[in-house]
Design goal:
mainly alpha, 193 residues, single chain, transcription, Tetracycline Repressor, domain 2, 79% helix
């Protein structure tokens, strides 16, 4: 393994440790010391990779975004009809719902970052850009295969639906199966059964 690959792997290990610490302690309660202990590295090594806590947090957020994007890409590759807009939208939305432990961890950490974004413009800008890209993608797919409608508005509804059900599942207000059923029903209404 090259030095560059080793560094990338170590940074990824630290990001994953940060996610676990965030679940246990909240984002505000997460420190470089806690993450170093969880990752099994020294604080000095942490500081070699990240000068500040915020630098570590932004990297962890970016790593999580890449992980979700990679998983969505894998779902796209598994589609029987990769050109079907409904199936593409479904794959993208379902991969962001907390339907298993991995996605539940991501959703919890994502909510923590959303809270941080309310008071920190760096996180707000990052999340706003991601939302804008997701919205544009949904608009494109709805225009390709949805029933006649205001595609921009429908994309907002889909994102709000997923965000709301994500919070509901995390808070125990509904089950993952109920969230999935609601998304499926909305997609059927938008694209047809």
């Amino acid at each position: 393994m090259s030095r560059q690959e080793d560094q990338a792997m170590r940074r990824r290990q630290i990001a994953e440790a940060m996610w676990r610490v965030t679940v246990a302690r909240s984002l505000e309660g997460t420190s470089m010391r806690h993450v170093a202990a969880e990752a099994g590295v020294s604080v000095g090594m942490m500081q070699h990779y990240f000068r500040t806590k915020d630098e570590m947090l932004l990297f962890a957020l970016d790593s999580m975004t890449e992980q979700v994007s990679r998983r969505i890409g894998e779902r796209f590759a598994e589609l029987a009809d990769p050109d079907d807009p409904k199936h593409q939208v479904r794959a993208a939305l379902v991969e962001t719902l907390p339907l298993d432990e991995e996605r539940r961890l991501e959703a919890f950490v994502g909510c923590a970052f959303l809270t941080r974004a309310a008071v920190d413009t760096r996180f707000a800008d990052y999340l706003r850009d991601g939302h804008r890209q997701g919205h544009a993608y949904l608009v494109e797919q709805i225009n390709r295969g949805g029933r006649p409608c205001d595609a921009a508005e429908e994309a907002h509804v889909l994102l709000a639906l997923v965000n709301g059900f994500t919070l509901g599942v995390l808070a125990g207000q509904c089950t993952a199966q109920q969230a999935l059923a609601a998304v499926e029903a909305r997609l059927d209404a938008l694209f047809g059964p």
